[in-house]
Amino acid sequence: MSTRHTLLSLLSAGPSHGYALKRQHDAYFPLARPLAYGQVYTTLRGLLQDGLVIVEGSDCDGGPARTLYRRTDEGTREIARWSADVTTPAPFVTNEIFAKLVVSILAGAAGRRVHDSELKPDAATYLRAQHHAHSERVREITELKELSGSDLATALAAEYALVHLEADLQWIATAASHIDSLTVGISASSRLALPATSGRTRNAGPDGSTRTSR
Predict the structure, then answer these.
(1) DSSP 3-state assignment of 200?
(2) Is-contact 66 18, C-beta < 8 A?
(3) Which among 128, 139, 133, 129 is positioned nearest to 162, based on CA atoms?
(4) Long-range contacts at 58-66 (CB < 8 A, ≥ 24 apart)
(5) Distances from the Cα of 102 to the Cαs of 97, 126, 134, 186, 201, in angstroms?
(6) Measured between alpha carbons, how far is 48 from 13 in angstroms, rounded to an integer?
(7) How buried is residue 8: exposed, middle or buried, by Cβ count under 10 Å (0-12/13-18/19+)?
(8) pLDDT for 192
(9) d(CA 207, CA 118)
(10) How do residues 100-135 score in pLDDT, each as one tens digit?
């Protein structure tokens, strides 16, 4: 999610300061990662530098003075352009769950020893643990959705999260059912990717130099 454009959109109602914008963001996007205040002010400085906002004075509001920012006409045009652009549907597969599954298979096949104990990751064990973690998250978000009442923003955010979690759970179950075939295929690919050797070895001499032998 673009923090720049989110903050610009929150300025639609009029000038505001970083503290209020952070609180508005967290309220409008209840399941998103909360914005850090440092991130808000860094983003506002960037928007100011790009001419998308200007300083509108300050607001004390019974506390310390806070800089007020107002969106410029160029900022309004930028929001219109950005919101009209269709989001590219996942051009690359960068799923961390799949990456860890492949790494578990590769590392498990290697079976390296570290500190006298064999560390041999097991892909099936990993998938079971990940399935459990996802199921727990589904339960938590389902409870949140049920408690949201008439808060439509929270309900919709929860539904979005649940759809993606359920898709992950379905994928994990499918991967687990094919774990043996996947392990054979990945292990075979890793062997093919190993560099070929010419039969020569390099031995270290007494002076630290090396010589090639057959």
Answers:
(1) coil
(2) yes
(3) 139
(4) 58/17, 59/17, 66/17, 66/18, 66/19
(5) 9, 11, 19, 8, 32
(6) 18
(7) buried
(8) 55
(9) 35
(10) 888 888 877 665 544 545 555 688 889 999 999 999
